[in-house]
Design a protein that fits this description.
Blueprint: H1 2-29, H2 34-39, H3 48-58, H4 64-76, H5 90-125, H6 130-144, H7 147-161, H8 177-211, H9 214-221, H10 226-254, H11 258-263, H12 269-279, H13 282-310
Helix pairs in contact: 1-13, 5-6, 5-8, 5-10, 6-8, 7-8, 8-10, 9-10, 10-13, 12-13
Family: Belongs to the binding-protein-dependent transport system permease family.
Keywords: Cell membrane, Membrane, Transmembrane, Transmembrane helix, Transport
Protein name: Peptide ABC transporter
C-alpha cells in the first residue's frame, strides 16, 4: 500500500506541475496584450502610459522564462499576487471563499450519499419491484431538471410559500451555527438532487453486478445471513465505482456551483470567479483557476487511495 501511495502521489505532483504550467501558458500566450485587454473599456483604446505601467506592475515586461520563474516562486510562497480592483491579496480572498464552496459541495455529497446509497442498494435487491420503479423514475426526473430550476423551485416553495427558511444568504459558523446550517441546507440540497440521482444509479448497477459474482453466491449457499452478505461482500465491492463517480462529479462542482451560489447568494469561490472574469482581473482569474485545478488533482488522488483500500487488487495494477 505504501508503494502504491508514493507512486500515486508522485503522479499527482507531476499533474499539478503540468496544470500550473498550462495555466501560465494559456494566460500569457493568448493573442493580444493582457494589460491592454484589462484596461480596455467599451472598445476605447487605453492610454499607452497606463498600459506600460500595468505591464510593469504585473511583470509582463520581463522575458517569458523570468515570468515563469517568478510565477513558481510566488506559488511556493502561496502568493497569487494582488487584485487589480481593490489591491487585496488574491490568496487571502481565495482562502476565505474556498472553504465555503467546499462546505457547500461536501454537504451536498453527504446528502446525496445518504439518499442514493441505501435506495440504490434496496432497489438492486429487488430489481423491477415497486421501490425500484419509483426510485428510478424519480432519479430520471432529477437528472433531467437543471440545477437553477431546482433552486428556484426550492426558494418558491420553502422560502416564499411555506416560509420555513430564508431565500438565501450567508452567516458565519462562528457567528450563529444554527442559522449557518439552515442557510446551507437549501443550496446543498439543490446540488444533491442531481448528484443523489447519479449515486442511486451507480449504486444500483454496482450492487446488481456484485450480487451475481461467485463469492456472493457461495456465501448465500453457506447460509450466511443476508445482512452480513450485503455489508461484507456486496457493499464493499460496490463502493469503488460509486466513489469514483462521486469524486468526478465533486471535481466538476468545484467550478460549477456558479448558478447555485448566485441563486442563494452564497459567497463562495464560483461567484468570485465570475466577478473576476467580468472585471478582467488577471491575478484573480489565474489564482482561482489554478486552485480549482489543483484541488481536482488531489481529490482524484484521495479517490485512488480509497479505491485501493477497498480493493487490494488495485494496488498491484
Amino acid at each position: 500500500m505504501l508503494a502504491f501511495t508514493l507512486r500515486r502521489t508522485a503522479i499527482a505532483l507531476v499533474l499539478v506541475w503540468l496544470v500550473a504550467t498550462l495555466v501560465f501558458m494559456v494566460i500569457h500566450l493568448i493573442p493580444g496584450d493582457p494589460a491592454e485587454l484589462l484596461l480596455s473599456q467599451g472598445g476605447v483604446a487605453p492610454d499607452p502610459a497606463a498600459v506600460a505601467e500595468l505591464r510593469e506592475r504585473l511583470g509582463l515586461d520581463l522575458p517569458l522564462y523570468t515570468q515563469y520563474l517568478n510565477y513558481w516562486a510566488g506559488l511556493f510562497r502561496g502568493d497569487f499576487g494582488v487584485s487589480l480592483q481593490d489591491e487585496h491579496p488574491v490568496a487571502s480572498e481565495i482562502a476565505l471563499r474556498l472553504p465555503r464552496t467546499l462546505e457547500l459541495i461536501g454537504a451536498a455529497a453527504v446528502i446525496a450519499l445518504s439518499v442514493g446509497l441505501p435506495f440504490g442498494t434496496m432497489a438492486a435487491l429487488k430489481p423491477g419491484g415497486r421501490l425500484d420503479r419509483i426510485a428510478s423514475l424519480i432519479a430520471g426526473i432529477s437528472l433531467s431538471v437543471p440545477v437553477f430550476v431546482v433552486g428556484t423551485l426550492a426558494i418558491l416553495v420553502f422560502a416564499q410559500k411555506l416560509g420555513w427558511v430564508s431565500a438565501g444568504g450567508y452567516v458565519a459558523l462562528a457567528q450563529d451555527p444554527v442559522r449557518h446550517f439552515i442557510l446551507l441546507l437549501m443550496p446543498a440540497s439543490t446540488i444533491a438532487v442531481g448528484l443523489g440521482a447519479v449515486v442511486f444509479r451507480v449504486t444500483r448497477s454496482a450492487v446488481l453486478e456484485v450480487l451475481g459474482r461467485d463469492h456472493v453466491r457461495a456465501a448465500q449457499a453457506r447460509g450466511v445471513r443476508p445482512r452480513l452478505i450485503i455489508l461484507r461482500h456486496v457493499l464493499r465491492n460496490a463502493l469503488s465505482p460509486v466513489l469514483t463517480v462521486v469524486a468526478l462529479h465533486l471535481g466538476s462542482l468545484l467550478g460549477g456551483t456558479v448558478l447555485v451560489e448566485y441563486v442563494f447568494n452564497w459567497p463562495g469561490l464560483s461567484g468570485y470567479l465570475v466577478r473576476s472574469v467580468e472585471a478582467r482581473d488577471y491575478p484573480e482569474v489565474l489564482g482561482i483557476v489554478l486552485s480549482i485545478s489543483v484541488l481536482f488533482v488531489f481529490l482524484n488522488l484521495l479517490v485512488d487511495l480509497a479505491y485501493a483500500a477497498l480493493d487490494p487488487r488495485v494496488r498491484h495494477a
